[in-house]
Write a structure and sequence with these properties.
Elements (H helix, E strand, L loop, with lengths): L4 E4 L2 E4 L10 H8 L4 H4 L6 H15 L6 H8 L6 H4 L4 H7 L7 H16 L5 H22 L17 H21 L11
Antiparallel strand pairs: 1-2
Length: 195
């Protein structure tokens, strides 16, 4: 067994060579529904709720007609790797990030690639760029509107009409609750399967 093996659900995953057959998507969803963002801050959204919020924002930011669905879908999947490795907060990621084949970014890409067959998450660079912006906006919405956080230098402007952010938060929480509820009884929904 590799020294880089991690257990998720009933499966062991080799982080250097993750095999799609060893990843249980229901176990990943269960973990995402319990991991609180911002280092486990109790008032923060779960990673699953954050992904749903990012998907809603990404749909609005889609560059052209026809990109709305792919942008939303990648937004809903962009942190799936956190269901395997947990939420690594940005300040820690910046301090520990090593580039190259064993760096954090490479690890996330390997896990995302292994998750793709179950979650259908093929993505173009343009969609990845849009979702990156949506992720920053969703984090700002969460910090200000959910956690009532103080002003910080990483906040980005939120280009949504008044009241939209609040409705997106409510919808993201409701969608995440539906997906998590199904996962709690072993069902996998919300990603193109059993909708």
């Amino acid at each position: 067994m590799s020294p880089h093996t991690l257990q998720v659900g009933d499966h062991l995953i080799d982080l250097l060579n993750p095999d799609p057959a060893t990843i249980d998507p229901v176990a990943v969803i269960r973990r995402l529904s319990t991991i609180r963002r911002f280092g486990g801050e109790p008032s923060a959204l779960t990673v699953l709720e954050h992904q749903e919020l990012t998907g809603l924002v990404a749909r609005v930011l889609a560059p052209t007609v026809g990109h709305e669905a792919p942008c939303r879908e990648w937004g809903r999947r962009h942190d799936l790797h956190e269901g395997v490795i947990g939420d690594i907060v940005s300040p820690v990621a910046r301090l520990t990030a090593r580039h190259g084949p064993n760096g954090l970014d490479a690890l996330k890409r390997r896990i995302d690639k292994a998750l793709a067959p179950a979650f259908g998450s093929e993505v173009t660079p343009r969609i990845r760029e849009v979702v990156g912006r949506a992720d920053a906006i969703a984090a700002s919405i969460e910090w200000v509107d959910v956690m009532n956080g103080p002003p910080v230098d990483w906040l980005v402007p939120v280009p949504l009409r008044y009241g939209i952010a609040e409705s997106f938060i409510l919808r993201a929480k409701a969608d995440a609750a539906r997906i998590a509820s199904a996962a709690s009884v072993g069902r996998f929904i919300g990603y193109g399967s059993e909708e």
